[in-house]
Fold this sequence. Notes:
Number of helices: 12
Bound molecules: pyridoxal-5'-phosphate
CATH class of the largest domain: Alpha Beta
CATH superfamily of the largest domain: Alanine racemase
Shape: elongated
Largest sheet: 8 strands, parallel, barrel
Low-confidence stretches: none
Distance between the termini: 22 Å
Amino acid sequence: MQQSTVELSRVNLAHNIKTFQKLIRETNPSGLFCAVVKSNAYGHGILEIATMSIESGAQVMGVNTPEEATAIRAIHKNIPILIMGDVPNLLQRSQELSDSNYWILVSRYDEWKFLAGLNPRPKIHIKVDTGMGRLGSFGKELEAILEKGKSNSFPLEGIATHFASTEDFTEHSYSQMQLKKFHEAIDLAKSIGYNNLIKHCAASASSLLFEDARMDMIRVGISLYGLWPSMETKLSMSLMNRPSAILKPVLEWKTKIQHIRNLPAGSYVGYGSTYKTTYPSIVGIVPVGYYEGLDRKLSNNGYMLVRGERARILGRICMNMTMLDLTHIPEAKIGEEVTIIGESDKEYLGADTISSWTGTINYETVTKILPLLPRRIVE
Ligand SMILES: Cc1ncc(COP(=O)(O)O)c(C=O)c1O
């Protein structure tokens, strides 16, 4: 018996891609859709999601590391891959990064110089820090890098920035300030002689909310997977009188009942004896724990679904097991399906709900799912 399986809906993924392609094409008919598949496609499965996204029309894959790019390149020979993270030891990776369909974000002159000298040479995009305080540069620092690059005739294909807090507020002056600074950086690049750059800054929330942020390409992560970046994003859509988008979750996470116990009232369940039955209880054991990606904060604090009913998590989440109260579902049997995320007989348990129980964001809840678990594409 497989311990647990991540099921991926091909049609829901295609639906989400189509939704965002419509958005970008509304503002730029030749605008590109970049599917952000970094971090094992936010826990969904990088190769499965990359392949299905390409089949559904995604033109660029967004990753964090060269290792992720290499994994995609092994099966998709020509798809442009945008490497967005800061690459450790970049200057020693000539072989790995010599790919004319890699698009690499650079923050520093030494990186640019190195990449410009590769053969084949990747496309180079300069990163602008407009308020994230992370990668990139701005103002005099950016100007110095661009001037130096120009004086050495280094090529440049794109310019990018990233919003810091679009997801966190319904008041968007900070994002608007970032957008203004990005335009300043684009103008600066132009004045130095870098024209016709591919300009990109919008992730999921900013693609949904700001038409003028979509530019030449949108880089969509969380909503590619059918999840909202936040409640504030949803609320902002309505406050800004935008028609709400329909996003369809791509992932379901299922396991099976491995064992069932009948415990008398007064029995303890799990490590630390943090749960004591107060009635004769049927306890189901499922083979999923914090190693597999369940948040330990779900201990005595969450549910899974069995036969469309919520089965409460009893005691502490173990490394590889979790105990569920099945007393009100006495017909449940060993081997029967348990839904950790997804639908069960018309009841739905989403990553958002689980995240509200554990005090985190849906991004983290899905990204934590163990990459080793099997991924199954559901047609
Ligand atoms: C540079 C960059 N662009 C785009 C994204 C996608 O963001 P989201 O998942 O909010 O769409 C990320 C995600 O972290 C990112 O780091």
